[in-house]
Amino acid sequence: MSAEQEEFLSKYTTIMGKVWQDEAEERKLLANPKKYAIEAGLPVSPDAEVVLDRSQADGLFASAQLVDDWNSTPGRHVLHVPAAPLVDVSELDEKELETVAGGGAAAEAPVVIIACYVST
Fold first, then answer.
1. 3-class DSSP string for 32-53
2. Across all residues in the chain, what is the average pLDDT?
């Protein structure tokens, strides 16, 4: 994994953590996903739209999927921020939250795992 991809994934997972922990952050993301992504430091193409995907994953996101979904369609970036994390993030400290969001292992391994659950 390149340093650029690691930096991208670190910023991406930081977005997830902030949104999961803070309702004000979530409201900002929902109001304008493109502006939020730019302010978070994600590389947004000038004429591209940022499509927010809040659906709960059926499985786990791998880092390659997050990068591919962001970059694969010209003019369109997909930002996956599931509506709920697998665990209660209010009980986690910052380092633990980063690990749940996938950023904690990014420098050590080329896979980012985003754990989510589906409530039925």
1. CHHHHHHHCCCCCCCCCEEEEE
2. 80
